Amino acid sequence: MGKYNICVYAICKNEEQFADRWMDSMSEADQVVVLDTGSDDGTVEKLRARGAQVTAEEIRPWRFDTARNRSLELVPEDVDICVCTDLDEVFRPGWRDALERAWVPEAGQATYRYTWSFNPDGSEGVVFWYEKIHARQGYQWAHPVHEVLRWVGEGSPGPMVSAEGVQLDHHPDPVKSRAQYLPLLELSVQEEPEDDRNVHYLGREYLYRGRWDDCIRTLERHLAMPTAVWRDERAASMRYIARSWWNKGDPARARDWYLRAITEAPHLREPYTDLALMLYEQEEWEGVLYFTSCALRIAVRPRSYICEASAWGSLPHDLRALALYHTGSYQAAAEEAGRALALEPGDQRLKENLRLMEQAAGL
Predict the structure, then answer these.
(1) Same fold, 177-266 and 268-363
(2) I need a surface site. Which of 96, 221, 271, 349 has the fewest CB within 10 A?
């Protein structure tokens, strides 16, 4: 045992394919406990063979917070640090030492770097900082889906520590259904209608499902809530409303909402990039150049989940290259195309664009 008694805990169902990889990654902990919620493959047997303490129980009706809280109950009372992960997640080696360096006895939670998605070429996609490491006492999971840790202990929670060097990577099963998310989000909003975070997530889910009117209605409600004060999330709601209007065939309203998002959170790349993409589709080249330049002036990637891979990948450079090409600035276009390709070197379209732009520039 190191400086602290560390326990990893998780929920799972039919994740035999991930069991060995996950146990390899979690082996730096002192113990691993798992709540299996109904596997009918070899998940339970494989985890037990690798040393995990597995309890099999079904959760009915299904809710993620109930399952997480039951799995937390399986963690021994004398544990110092609880590490909640899923079986499709992998810590990079050395995570325990980095966590112990950051942790202090009075700490409540730890925040750490999390790669939620990867691009097809293996480069990082969506990256933000997660907070699912916490002290054993005083915490409980809340919400049927997109569950969060909530302090329920006496007094105030301990401080949040920043666990620099802890890196968790998410490698999900691409065919796993997320059909349960929408009804659980609707339930979450019914249960706590004044929780602005849940309303934002529900509106975003409607966007994913192509339910444009529901998205607009729900996110306008989010923006009107007195507790919805986080500018980054408010800007995201505005961008999703804009996308919905664009998909409904109203580019003027879409533009207006994108401009509102920029005004709300001018420190984020995403609103500028989204508007530049819409203007590209309208062949408004000068607008593309202006808004991509605004996006690219933002050099520090935020740590929050309001961070889309496209805005931090090749897209701003790609859009800029195309706009420069269409306005006759061939050499500058080739330079931007080269920057886009450097960020996604396996993309064949970007390679061909660079070749054509270099040819037009006489390079």
Answers:
(1) yes
(2) 349
Place of tokens 């009107």: 224
Taking a C-beta distance cutoff of 8 angstroms, is the pair 265, 234 a contact?
Answer: yes
Task: List pLDDT tens digits, range 278-314.
Answer: 999 999 999 999 999 999 999 999 888 888 889 999 9
CATH 1.20.1250.20 is held by the domain 177-266? no
- Predicted confidence at residue 307, as pLDDT, reads 86
C-beta of residue 52 within 8 angstroms of C-beta of residue 80: no
Dihedral class, residue 30 (left if φ above 0, else alpha if ψ from -120 to 50, else beta): alpha
Tell me the per-residue pLDDT of 30-60, one tens digit each, with 9 for 90 and over. Answer: 999 999 999 999 999 999 999 999 999 999 9
Q: Is residue 56 helix, strand or coil?
A: strand
Pairwise CA distance, residues 168 & 185, whole Å = 25
CA–CA distance, 262 with 186 (Å, rounded to integer): 29
Beta strands 160-170 and 89-91: pairing type?
antiparallel
What span, in angstroms and rounded, lies between the C-alpha atoms of 121 and 161?
33
Whether the Cβ atoms of residue 335 and residue 307 lie closer than 8 Å to each other: no
Predicted structure pTM score? 0.89
For domain 268-363, the question of CATH label 1.10.10.10 is answered with no
Domain segments of the chain: what residues?
6-170, 177-266, 268-363
> Which residues neighbour 93 within 8 Å (Cβ) at sequence distance 6 or greater?
28
